[in-house]
Amino acid sequence: MFIDSAKIKIKAGNGGNGAVSFRREKYVPKGGPDGGDGGKGGSVIFMVNLGLRTLQDFRYKRKYRAEDGQNGGKANRTGKDGEDLIIKVPPGTLVKEEETGRVIADMVKPGEKVVIARGGRGGAGNQRFATPTRQVPNFAKPGEEGEELSVILELKLLADIGLVGFPNVGKSTILSVVTSAAPKIANYHFTTITPNLGVVDLGDDSFVLADIPGIIEGAHQGVGLGHEFLKHIERTKLLIHVVDISGSEGRDPLEDFEIINDELKKYNKQLAERPQIVAVNKIDITENLEEKLKNFKEAIEPKGYKVFPISAATSKGIKELMRYGAKMLKELPETVIVKPEEKYVYETKNEEDFRVYKENTVFVIEGKWVEKLIASINFNDYESLQYFQRSMRKKGIIDALEAKGINEGDTVRVEDIEFEYYK
Fold first, then answer.
1. CB 310 within 8 A of CB 175
2. CB atoms closer than 10 angstroms to residue 401
3. Per-residue model confidence as pLDDT tens digits over 123-139
């Protein structure tokens, strides 16, 4: 089963907390601070693995978390960094941020690595806060939280050549004849509902061929399974446009040809400009073949299309078609890959970090930043309280409280801690 999209949640590791510790040595009754820094949280890294062809694994596991950094220790010991989490994806995986839809990474090259969520920095131990005037800092910084986000994974085929055309024109049969792929083949529309891949081995040359599920009129608007099918063509260098010259489905082959190209153009103009070889199939069951073939060629060859009459059922003309495709591939440049947008990096902003409001007579402060700060403060230590007040002012929280009309002696609450406000 070919899975071409998945949604997963990833969480980088949190940084370890800095330690509050003091030297305790014999004959050194008042040793200085020696609390070590916390370790860095592990990052979530995506890596291209050539051995993977689908996103199947992401159906069964949808939450991924890197290791947290360890807390700092006494004697200036730094906490161990958390291990990075490596998530392997197939080549051609597009990584998008679910919330914004922006492209974070386009994973193509073998072994390519991209950091999708960065681990939090470790907090500073109390030894870093020692100054000539503050010799006994009784506080340390907590570690930062690692980035967390939901991402959409999309696998766009890295096929060299894509087979396109209406349902039942013989694309799956062609693929089964020239590769070891074994698509299910039957005579009804949407026989193929997911792309099938196969390697065409010509002895001295080879390439990847994809049977793109049948496109119908209105596909660019999502008719049928339009959008799901069309997006798989975007990376192919070359298209083999298969038409049924016999008209066995009651359709006109020339009209089919124009409709498919129109759908490609409406979906993506670059697709319509992709080089095409035209494979006129089912010549073995076509009545008045020469006349129909002559009329078809006269209509499209002046536009620059190369036409190959073939029979997928009997393999007639198939080898010549594949060799011509291999020849064209060598002359074509790589297809344009989706350019990732600049990765969104969360920047600390006052309005996002905290919220100040009045609840009856109590001024309430909410937000992760201030909650972390509170967790690192020793409220029985004067210097620690001074550090707390300076940090609150620097962050803009004091200004926000004053804007809400706070006065000296009023009560302030952060989580379950209450204290009186004094300038």
1. no
2. 19
3. 999 999 888 878 888 88
- The CA–CA distances, whole Å, from 12 to 20, 39, 69, 80, 101 equal 25, 13, 10, 15, 20
Give me the pLDDT at residue 189, please. Answer: 40
- Domain 350-420: which topology? GMP Synthetase; Chain A, domain 3 (3.30.300)
Fold classification of 1-155 (topology level) = Spo0b-associated Gtp-binding Protein; Chain: A, (2.70.210)
Strand-strand pairing, 306-309 and 276-281: parallel
Dig out the tokens for 297 from the structure.
């060629």
Superfamily name with CATH number, domain 161-331 = P-loop containing nucleotide triphosphate hydrolases (3.40.50.300)
The amino acid occupying position 91 is: P
Domain with CATH 3.30.300.350 in the chain: 350-420
Of 55-69, 188-202, 279-293, where does mean pLDDT reach its minimum?
188-202
Asked whether 19 and 71 are in contact (CB, 8 A), the reply is: yes
Label the pairing between strands 161-164 and 238-244. Answer: parallel
Name residue, tokens 């129909």: 292
- In the chain, CATH 3.40.50.300 sits at 161-331
Sheet of 206-211, strands arranged across: 196-201, 206-211, 161-164, 238-244, 276-281, 306-309
Query: Half-sphere exposure of residue 275, counting CA atoms within 13 Å on the CB side?
Result: 18
CB 114 within 8 A of CB 45: yes
What is the tens place of the pLDDT at every residue in 284-318?
999 999 999 999 999 999 999 999 999 999 999 99
| Strand 148-155 with 93-97, pairing | antiparallel
Q: Which residues pair with 402 in a beta bridge?
A: none
Strand partners, 362: 359, 411
The band of 187, judged by pLDDT with boundaries at 50, 70 and 90, is very low
Cα separation, 238 vs 328, in Å, equals 8
C-alpha–C-alpha distance, residues 419 and 69, integer Å: 32
DSSP sequence for 280-336: EE-GGG-TTHHHHHHHHHHHHGGGT-EEEE-BTTTTBTHHHHHHHHHHHHHHSPPPP
